[in-house]
Amino acid sequence: MRSLLLDSPISRLGYLWGTTVGFTWGFIWSAGRVERRGGLWVFRGMPNWTFGRGGVCVGGCYLTHDNVSDTVLEHEAVHQQQWRRYGFLMPWLYAMAGRDPLKNRFEIEAGLEKGGYLR
User: Fold this and answer.
1) Where are the transmembrane segments (predicted)?
2) What is the dihedral of CA 14, 5, 3, 105, to 10 degrees?
3) Which domain holds residue 32?
4) Per the confidence metrics, is the pTM higher than 0.85?
5) According to the model, what pLDDT value does residue 3 have?
6) Number of structural domains, the chain?
7) Would 119 be classed as within a structural domain?
């Protein structure tokens, strides 16, 4: 079961689904620049209510108002890789990991300092 869902054609389909959702949400709400940076589609100018914290990675898209430093994008690129690995499971697994970024295994793996959670 593990190889069927993780790093598999099914997880890649989930990644593409997430990217489609991210593109759709980004194109609807982005009032800023849209660009490709470090392998991510970055949608700027998003209203704050359209994403959590400083921004959110959905598939291959990063949605934010203006939180686009190189360090943050390195952090978000790890989330993109997590989406590729877990696909459809990613939203559920992330929610189960909890809202506290200091205890959330996905945020820890992406780098708490790069994500702006530690100073």
Assistant:
1) 12-31
2) 90
3) 2-110
4) yes
5) 74
6) 1
7) no
Instruction: Calculate what percentage of the chain has a pLDDT beyond 90.
Output: 93
* Domain contains 71: yes
Question: Helix, strand, or coil here: 36?
Answer: strand
Residue 118 lies inside a defined structural domain of this protein:
no
The structure tokens 């690129």 sit at 77
CA distance 114 to 3: 30
Summarised one tens digit per residue, pLDDT across range 47-79 is 999 998 999 999 999 999 999 999 999 999 999
Alpha-carbon distance of 100 to 29, in angstroms, equals 26
Residue 119 has pLDDT above 80, yes or no: no
Q: In sequence order, which residues have a C-beta less than 8 Å from that of residue 76 and are 6 or more positions away?
A: 40, 55, 57, 62, 110
